[in-house]
Design goal:
This protein has 28 helices and 24 strands. It is an alpha/beta fold. The protein has two domains: 375 residues, TIM Barrel (Alpha-Beta Barrel); 339 residues, TIM Barrel (Alpha-Beta Barrel), CATH 3.20.20. The strands form seven sheets. The chain has an eight-stranded parallel beta sheet. A six-stranded parallel beta sheet has the order 15-20-21-22-23-24. Helix 1 packs antiparallel against helix 2 and helix 23 runs parallel beside helix 24.
């Protein structure tokens, strides 16, 4: 039985791509040096898969920033403002991803959003009315030929036409329907060139097919591919879906002349049912996604073999595959030297998942599977028990009462109490929490972890940084201050280190966007708070100023969603356990005089089911109450803030309001403040701070630019409910750009206040 991988991680086992890109952005290396690093990484990735025995290896899954942006760039979907820049094609690409501010112009980056239900972010292609959709690049074929040079036949991947149309933002009078023909023609050009290059198989990634589809959506999908596939010639075409099942369009898929269809058997709840009900065509190959591409737990071979055997009984030609790209998991366990076998025996990262695919293939083809040592070892592993239960945690959760999920008095009354208590001006200014993590901060943390400095030296350094940060904020004129979070490596890992039930890796990095990589902790067992987490830092920071100091926490939903979750208990139970741990920290902060407490839920949307019918029963019905559990015990005069990052929020505004926070800050600048209309339409009661400028770009917004943004906000949000802030934390930004941007933000706010 053959094997396949939907996609492979691209940042490098030791984040080589990240560091090379950052050097390029700092003008420390040339474009040629950057490409040399990229080429070396691609070669390693292909050879790793070949050596593991993978039959269908993917190319063009590599990207400097984002594969959706790559596809847009390939098809000339480049807004005019970027084309006008007198810069190289590579720098034009980066300008679209990160913005550009220099001697050749000043442009914002394209919008950035969450990639379906993952912690990865994609760049939103922007289509203007006069955009000429056509094949204009060669990346796909260049990388195919690179692999060919290593004697590796690959299946290049490209974002599918339907998904691309759904992800695009149309900025003029025209919409997706108006561009459908042009998009189809461009993809026909792609297929024609694949034939000319003698590419044997091309993979179209179509994750949008697992979302709710209307009859019109189905018609669009069929219309597009009926047109495109007429050009496939000798090139085999694989339709690859993932993150769910294709219940709305399965019948159409199997009727169209695809040569292979990739279906998700991990998150695709109805995938087996669809095959049972409608069958699977004899003239197609099923790429069965049976190895989880999103989590790090080992595959349960017997359960997977049940799926494989069912497919074999139906005489379906099957290739064993990952459920999605492996870019969502770390590279390899080989770099983890500190975790004991008690734990690592249960894990499989990207490289280890290649082994799982091969072993499953061999077992499935064995004449006597019970004689297979790999199956015996897997059975033994899953027959054992993990030391992961905590009786006290389970008891506490069982005793939770309905009133524990509700704060008193109601929000409108609390808001009046808080305004009187705080005495803040109209349009209060603040930041989201973190300040730049400069080199000296990272060196100090590293030295402490290595035992090169004492705990007291570590603390003293951070106190000095906090002192500097507080003074800077006072000089700038911010109204509500933060301590800067210099003690934190990551907003989830830092909290996880103080919680029981978590494990931590050394080099298990995963790409979040561009050069931003995260190292998600692993939830191994029941979760509880072992010790105070932030109280000491917040109390110290408050002692340095007469202004209000925000306590900064990460919320339970985000901690779960940005970790690798357990698979032996429900998500509901995991989130509830974490909520109690954070509740303990909230109450201790309040008891120590912290008047504003921000509980970040940056990742609220990430585990939201992709189908609307599942939103409440499978997620929101327990995720929202879990957040309320963290804060329901505080006094009315204690103000609870939350924050959310790059996602689509407009369709869950009522649920966000139901979190019962007093204030919410969120990304809005990069999406041109489009969320504001939704807030107004839903009579949003929570005070709101839509980000007035984009912190994921190095460009500095002008006073005029921010003033304009605030004035637009005031047409949609009452002046008594509007907060002014950047759209996210400032951890990744430089000191100069941070100070300059915040000064411009405060100056803009003062300009607007004069006219209120």
């Amino acid at each position: 039985m053959k094997t396949a991988v939907v996609g492979y991680p691209r940042i490098g086992a030791l984040r080589e791509l990240k560091f090379a890109l950052e050097k390029y952005f700092r003008y420390e290396i040339s474009a040629e040096e950057l490409e040399a690093t990229a080429k070396a990484l691609r070669k390693v990735h292909w050879l790793t898969q070949r050596e593991a025995g993978i039959d269908y290896i993917t190319s063009n899954d590599f990207s400097y920033y984002d594969i959706v942006l790559d596809t847009a760039f390939l098809l000339n979907i480049i807004p005019a403002r970027y084309k006008k820049l007198d810069i190289s094609e590579l720098d034009r690409y980066f300008a679209m991803a990160r913005g550009y501010q220099g001697e050749n112009g000043d442009v914002k980056a394209l919008a950035m959003k969450k990639w379906f239900n993952t912690n990865y972010h994609y760049i939103v292609p922007e289509v203007e009315d006069d955009t000429d959709i056509r094949l204009s690049g060669s990346k796909l074929w260049d990388e195919y030929n690179e692999a060919k040079h290593e004697n590796i036949e690959t299946k290049p991947v490209i974002t599918g036409v339907y998904t691309l149309l759904k992800l695009c933002r149309f900025t003029g009078e025209k919409n997706a329907d108006d561009f459908a023909y042009a998009f189809a023609n461009a993809y026909k050009e792609v297929l024609k060139k694949c034939n000319d290059t003698a590419i044997q198989c091309l993979q179209f990634d179509e994750p949008a097919l697992v979302q709710d589809m209307t009859d019109k959506d189905r018609e669009l999908f069929v219309k597009l591919y009926s047109n495109i596939l007429g050009e496939k010639g000798k090139c085999k075409v694989l339709l690859q879906t993932y993150f769910g099942d294709v219940r709305d369009v399965y019948e159409d898929i199997v009727k169209l002349p695809f040569d292979g269809v990739g279906l998700d058997f991990i998150e695709g709840k109805k995938t087996p049912e669809l095959i049972n009900k409608y069958g699977f065509p004899d003239d197609k190959i099923l790429f069965a996604g049976v190895v989880n591409g999103k989590n790090i737990w080992k595959n349960h071979y017997e359960k997977t073999l049940d799926i494989i055997n069912t497919l074999k009984e139906k005489n379906i030609k099957t290739v064993l595959s990952t459920s999605c790209s492996l870019q969502h998991v770390p590279y390899t366990l080989e770099n983890e030297t500190k975790l004991s076998k008690e734990y690592t025996d249960y894990f499989a990262f990207a490289k280890e998942k290649l082994v799982e695919l091969k072993e499953l293939s061999q077992i499935a083809e064995s004449d006597d599977i019970n004689a297979e040592d790999t199956l015996k070892a897997n059975r033994q592993l899953f027959a054992g028990t993990r030391n992961c239960d905590n009786a006290e945690v389970k008891k506490r959760l069982a005793e939770v009462k309905a009133e524990d999920y509700h704060r008193q008095p109601e929000r409108s009354k609390r808001q009046k109490i808080q305004k009187e208590a705080f005495g803040l001006p109209k349009l209060p200014t603040t930041t989201i929490g973190s300040f730049p993590q400069t080199k000296d901060v990272k060196v100090n943390r590293s030295a402490f972890r290595k035992g090169e400095i004492t705990k007291q030296e570590y603390i003293e350094f951070n106190r000095n940084k906090i002192k500097e940060c507080v003074r800077l904020q006072e000089e700038i004129g911010l109204d509500v201050l933060v301590h800067g979070e210099y003690e934190r490596n990551d907003m989830v890992e830092y909290f996880g280190e103080a919680l029981g039930g978590f494990l931590f890796t050394e080099k298990a990095w995963v790409q979040s966007y561009g050069t931003r990589c995260v190292k998600p902790p692993v939830i191994w067992g029941d979760v509880y708070r072992k010790k105070s987490i932030t109280v000491e830092w917040s109390v110290y920071a408050q002692s340095l100023t007469n202004k209000i100091m925000k306590g900064m926490l990460t919320g339970p939903v985000t901690i779960l969603n940005w970790s690798f979750p357990r698979e032996d208990i429900t998500i509901k139970e995991s989130i509830s356990q974490i909520a109690f741990a954070i509740r303990d920290e909230v109450l201790e902060l309040e008891a120590n005089g912290i008047k504003i407490i921000q509980i970040d839920e940056a990742a609220l949307r990430e585990k939201l089911p992709l189908r609307k019918s599942d939103w409440n029963c499978e997620y929101l019905d327990f995720a929202i109450p879990a957040f309320r559990l963290t804060s329901s015990g505080v006094r009315p005069e204690t103000q609870i803030h939350t924050h959310m990052c790059y996602s689509e929020f407009t369709d869950i505004i009522p649920a966000i309001d139901d979190m019962d926070a007093d204030v919410i800050t969120f990304e809005a600048s990069r999406s041109d403040l489009l969320i504001l209309d939704s807030l107004r339409e839903n009579n949003f009661e929570t005070e709101a701070g839509p980000g007035v400028y984009d912190i994921h770009s190095p460009r500095i917004p002008s006073v005029e630019e921010i003033t304009q943004a605030i004035n637009i906000m005031l047409t949609k949000i009452d002046k008594d409910k509007l907060w002014i802030n950047p759209d996210c934390g400032l951890k990744t930004r430089g000191v100069y750009e941070t100070e300059k941007s915040l000064k411009n933000m405060v100056a803009a706010t003062e300009n607007v206040r004069k006219n209120l």
